[in-house]
Automatic annotation (TrEMBL):
It is an enzyme of class 3 (hydrolase). InterPro entries: GlcNAc_PI_deacetylase-related (IPR003737), LmbE-like_dom_sf (IPR024078). This is PIG-L family deacetylase. One of its GO terms (molecular function) is hydrolase activity. Its EC number is 3.5.1.-. The lineage of its organism: Bacteria, Pseudomonadati, Pseudomonadota, Gammaproteobacteria, Pseudomonadales. Gene3D superfamilies: LmbE-like (3.40.50.10320). It comes from the Bacteria. Keywords: Hydrolase. The keyword Coiled coil does not apply.
Amino acid sequence: MKPASLSEGRRGPAQIWNSAPQLAQVPAIALTRLVPPGARVVVIAPHPGDEVLACGGLLQLLSTREHPLQLISITDGSASHPGSHVWPASRLSVVRPQESAEALRRLGMPLHSLKWIRGGFRDDALAAHEQPMSQFIARYLQPGDRVFTTWCHDGNDDHDAVGRASAKACSLVGARLYELPVWAWHWPAREASVMPWQRARKIRLDTWSVARKLHATHAYASQLVGDPQIGLPPKLAQVLLERIREPYEIVFA
């Protein structure tokens, strides 16, 4: 399945996020149903920024309830601008983790107590390292953890691989996995029937939480610009920023 062009805005091709009728029927879920009191939460992000795009609102809700939190960043995101001399991998490998720290600060996350693991896996090549990635993830999980990561059919090779590897790790350890769509929202509307709507649950966000999430997304300055010299568009296109203004996040439970 091919995502719709992220260079298009609301007036562009209909995408799942802004036109699927099933979205209105997704039931809301209370945070305590997802994460019991005292449970540890682990968020696994394929690339820097995926944790904000997927569940920046959820992270805010969890931080206010003082759940133990662990973030696993699988890659440093340094392959986001292939062929660019303005944003070479050597620069991005330093910049993108810094952007993540600033984004988490904007969300109000307790950086002093957040356990943050960096995997160091090669960006844009995770499918070839799925087994060692699964073993790596399992080392940092505990029985009873609530684990949130990208959906294994999200339509991005790295997202899909991390979803599969996380599922294997959770099964091995005895943790509970929840999947989050990110790029799948930008599939053409005709693909909406492929989404597992029966598993979908809506986490409602207030206006302030949405605003903080959008503010955090703008911390990823490197992703807001492409490289016109080589025809590379921004990764965080306007249509994606429009989508994260929605007053909810969807989790596949």
